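Q: Sequence in, structure out?
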Amino acid sequence: MNTGRKSNPYSSHLVEPARGGYIFAGKVGSGGLEKIVGRLERHGWRGELVGPHGAGKSTLLTDIIGQLAARGLRVRRWQCSDRRRGLEREWRGMMRKCDVVAIDGAERLWPWLLWAVRAETRLRKKGLIIT
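A: Exactly. Output:
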């Protein structure tokens, strides 16, 4: 029995994050992005964005990266998917050239690789933001 497509056409690796930016609701409201960036700064640019599928984690990560770049930080972003569970062969060298590493879809990385990225960023005192 054919139940439809073999892949989700709205998966984060197939669509761009919303161009309008993340929309904060509820108590966070105005200044939400600045609050989140401030909190990340207090934690050494290390954090995890969590939420249900389609909640806007990739969009929020894009907005955060823009704020970090505006502050003069160099950010290296990787996008993971079910088809791309690894990083480039030279990921350690690329990491040395940045201040913060951002991985969208980190739960899809090979577990040993996610552990290695966490260890490497901590050792080199780099920020790490993952979704």
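The longest strand covers residues 75-79.
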